[in-house]
Amino acid sequence: MDYKIKLNTPEDVNEFVKAANECDFDVDISYNRFIVDAKSILGVLCLNLRQSLKVSAQSRDIQFEEFLKKYEVA
């Protein structure tokens, strides 16, 4: 599943990485051609946080999907 999100603050990044780490499957986050492991706080912080980011999850998790709605953009 793919989602578009926007992380505005370092606290948002920290909360997002914690939620991704609770998933027992791979979660990637990307901007343009740069793809990083969403479970890596340093990797996520290296992305351009001023832009919307694409989250790609390898499986479905209702709790994680509900969490992503907090940061979802159209």
Layout of strands and helices, then pairs:
Elements: E1 2-5, H1 10-21, E2 27-31, E3 34-37, H2 41-45, E4 53-57, H3 62-68
Antiparallel strand pairs: 1-4, 2-3, 2-4
Descriptive terms for the model:
four-stranded antiparallel β-sheet, HPr domain-containing protein, alpha+beta, HPr-like_sf, HPr-like, Histidine-containing Protein, Chain: A, 3 helices, 32% helix, 74 residues
Explain this structure.
- This is HPr domain-containing protein.
- It comes from Anaeromicropila herbilytica.
- Pfam families: PTS-HPr (PF00381).
- The protein is α+β, with helices and mostly antiparallel strands and 74 residues long.
- It has one domain: HPr-like (Histidine-containing Protein, Chain: A), CATH 3.30.1340.10.
- The chain is built from three helices and four strands.
- Strands 1-4-2-3 form a four-stranded antiparallel sheet, with no helix packed on it.
- The radius of gyration is 11 Å and the shape is globular.
- The two termini are 15 Å apart.
